[in-house]
Amino acid sequence: MILDIVTYPAPSLAEKCAPVTEMTEEIRQLAADMTETMYDAPGVGIAAPQVGRNIRLIVVDPYWSKETPRNPRVLVNPVLTLLGEQVTSEQEGCLSVPLNFRADVKRAERVRLQATDLDGNVIDEELEGFPAFCLQHECDHLDGVLFIDRIGRLRRVMYDSKVKKWQKRRNAG
Ligand code: ZN
Q1: Which residues make Cβ contacts (< 8 Å) with residue 115, sequence separation at least 6?
Q2: pLDDT digits (tens, 9 = 90+) for 70-101
Q3: Which of 85, 109, 126, 138 is catalytic?
Q4: Residue 42 confidence (pLDDT)
Q5: How many angstroms does the Cα of residue 27 sit away from the middle of ligand 1?
Q6: Ligand 1 midpoint to CA 45 (Å)
Q7: 138 noted as active-site residue
Q8: Where are the beta strands (DSSP E) in 93-165?
């Protein structure tokens, strides 16, 4: 089932998410629905708070494009250790950030990912480049952080004023 995506400035996107404590059937269904919602959007990553569930669950498929096969990874309670230099992640966007706003963000070039899958199998690996950026972006969601919280203050102020105008127009219409 395709789920509604929660968009900024919804306060729930700024909350810290709770750990997943049990792999219930409901969690499996949520992961399946998040995966479907991500591809439909379309996007290469989605975090549970983006569909209104504030728990530590993400789905990523960093190399997916419409011409390539799907390879979704469901990650439960992911923990990242940031490694390497700070580099520029170019033109990030987010399904929860309206108006298709994009901006460069400073990210760690590599990460160590520790998580489990839906069957409780332990994942412990290092990633670099775009998959590492994608994971940092999605794990930020679990701590209530959006990529627009990581851009310069001036760009943020300008973006916020655009969003306010857009909301006014939307509410008026
Ligand atoms: Zn996002």
Answers
A1: 75, 76, 77, 78, 79, 123
A2: 999 999 999 999 999 999 999 999 999 999 99
A3: 138
A4: 95
A5: 20
A6: 7
A7: yes
A8: 103-116, 122-128
With a cut of 90, say whether residue 68 has pLDDT above it. no
Kindly give, in sequence order, each residue whose CB lies less than 8 Å from that of residue 100, ignoring residues fewer than 6 positions away.
Answer: 93
Could you tell me if 88 and 104 are in contact, meaning their C-beta atoms sit under 8 angstroms apart?
Answer: yes
Query: Residues near 126 by Cβ (< 8 Å), separated by ≥ 6?
Result: 83, 110, 111, 112, 113
> Nearest CA to 54 among 10, 115, 113?
10
Joined together, the tokens standing for residue 135 give: 């994971």
Please provide the size of the chain in residues.
Answer: 173
Find the distance separating the first CA and the last CA of the chain, reported in whole Å. 28
Consecutive H or E run containing 45: strand 45-47
- Its pTM stands at 0.96
CA of 134 to the centre of ligand 1 (A): 9
Q: How far, in Å, is the centroid of ligand 1 from the Cα of 10?
A: 13
| Residue range 99-146, pLDDT digits in tens | 999 999 999 999 999 999 999 999 999 999 999 999 999 999 999 999
